[in-house]
Design a protein that fits this description.
Strand content: 15-25%
Oligomer: single chain
CATH class of the largest domain: Alpha Beta
Order of helices and strands: HEHEHEHEHEEEEEEH
Distance between the termini: 35 Å
CATH superfamily of the largest domain: Spore Coat Polysaccharide Biosynthesis Protein SpsA, Chain A
Number of domains: 2
Largest sheet: 6 strands, mixed
Radius of gyration: 17 Å
Number of strands: 10
Helix content: 25-40%
Number of helices: 6
């Protein structure tokens, strides 16, 4: 059953801080020794259907040793590179990226994700409807574009989360907004003011 609680009741103190007209988005790509993925990921981000002056792409490099840092400078100088000398882990690096980001909305993206041109606009449209929620993406395997990698999350009786429809084949892409029990860390959007309150807890690598 869908949650019908009014947004104003969920977090009324956050609503005035979010610009619902055409918000600037900061996409934070976390990279660690993933140079082989960067071209496809960053080129797909460069091609999104969203005003270029409203998109900021940050690559937070988590102390890579595979030449990622120099490769970004040489081949993707349009992104904002945040270079770390030491690996701060998943949450440590993403928290730093969020602190540096200037967008009203934050997207956290894995470096091996290739996005659809309409991906960002679809997320923003949902965020404009319920700006205090966290939004995640439906995902398919890159080498099997009709096989689902993630389609929302469910909980087991023991309270552990798992990806819904994992491995299921779709003949036609179906995109339907729905409530999920947990975000998908490989691709998720949250407003910056909400993230400041929640943060990224723990420090998993």
């Amino acid at each position: 059953m869908a949650d019908t609680t009014p947004v104003s009741d969920l977090a009324p103190h956050l609503l005035p801080q979010i610009n619902l007209s055409f918000p600037k988005v900061s996409i934070i790509v976390l990279n660690y020794n993933g140079k082989r993925y960067l071209d496809e990921c960053l080129n797909s981000l460069k091609a999104v259907h969203y005003p270029s002056d409203k998109v900021e792409v940050l690559v937070v490099d988590n102390g890579s040793t595979d030449g990622s840092q120099s490769y970004i400078r040489e081949h993707h100088d349009w992104v904002k590179a945040v270079t770390l000398q030491n690996n701060l882990g998943f949450c440590g690096a993403n928290n730093l990226g969020a602190k540096v980001a200037t967008g009203e909305l934050l997207v956290f993206l894995n470096n091996d994700v290739i996005v659809d041109p309409d991906w960002l606009r679809a997320l923003v449209e949902q965020a404009m409807i319920i700006p205090t929620f966290v939004f995640t993406s439906k995902a398919y395997f890159a080498d099997k574009p009709h096989v689902i990698n993630h389609n929302g999350s469910k909980l087991t009786l023991l309270g552990r989360g798992f990806c819904s429809d994992f491995g299921r084949t779709e003949k036609k892409t179906i995109l339907t907004p729905k409530l999920n029990v947990q975000p998908y860390g490989a691709s998720m959007m949250v407003s910056k003011v909400v993230f400041k309150e929640l943060g990224c807890g723990g420090n998993r690598r």
